[in-house]
Request: fold
Amino acid sequence: MNIKTGSAGAKLAPRYRSLLLTNKAFTLVEVIVILAVISILVAIVTPTVLKYIAEAQQSRTEEDVRSISVVLNDLIKDTGQYPGSKLPIVATVQTTFLCSTGTKLGGSWGDDTTCADLNMHLIENDPSQDGTTGGTGDYRTTGRRKYKGPYVQVINEDPWGNAYQINAASLIGGNTSPTWIISAGPNGTFETVPTATAIAGDDMGVRLK
Ligand SMILES: [Ca+2]
Ligand SMILES: [Ca+2]
Reply:
């Protein structure tokens, strides 16, 4: 019995050795090589990924300002009224810009006090911002030239968290100054002034007129 058991144990021994070899820990050199390979891959892939993200953000911004431009034109055609003539006084301050959600950067553009809510023109008919649709200061709700919105389902902030802005005080009948629908772009600062006839810096926008 003792001899048989000993013989079986001797036969199993190489299998255990093999298992031990298979599960052995990585050596320090192997770990260093693996980390080096991973860092090289990250270094190769990261700039490409960042470039794709930047391009996607730029495309979305161009698409957003174009869409806002199209629906604003629809609103003007339908109602025969210009959004600039419907900018409300909010907390005793006359608003002069129309802004989407997002941070209102100010400077030569609108801030929290000078921005009126763009959604009140394109999604709801309440440019007077008094919570009542179709009242004084809002678009007509009857007749041939009535408000036919909502003109868009949602207007997002730009990809960098800032508001799309329109220098809407110039968007009134007979005014020939430029009207922009604009984003401050990736750097979050407006380089274009509202009276400019061309986009400056990394801002992105379209001229409504
Ligand atoms: Ca109203
Ligand atoms: Ca900029």
About this structure: The helical segments are 2-22, 28-79, 119-122.
